[in-house]
Structures are given as structure tokens and as C-alpha cells.
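Human: Here is a favour to ask of a fellow structure person. Comparing notes only helps if you start from a blank page. Give me a protein, with the fold worked out from its sequence. Please set it down just below, with no commentary around it:

Assistant:
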Amino acid sequence: MKITENNWKIFNIVIEGISLVQTKQAELNSSIARLGVVGTLEKLQTVNVKIESIQ
């Protein structure tokens, strides 16, 4: 994903019939099923903070 001005651009990579977007969507759906929407958002925020701290 990449942000440009006020829009997000999403690029999909398909290798041997496996879509990166579909894989990430399945991971997100699984997380929502386990943690709920709020829990998943909190988890994503934690990951973002960690990434920002090492950049």
C-alpha cells in the first residue's frame, strides 16, 4: 500500500496463483474472528508503533 495525496493505492502481487491481497485479507479475517474488531485494531496499532520506533 502507498498513500498518495489523499488516496491509498493498493498493489497486488500474484505468484503461482497466490494473491498477496487475498492472503492478507484472510489473516485480517482470522484476527477479527479471534480478537474482534477492537482487538484487531489495537494489535495493528501496536505493530505500527513498533515499526515506527525502529525507522
Q: What stands out?
A: The beta strands are 2-4, 7-9, 14-15, 18-19.
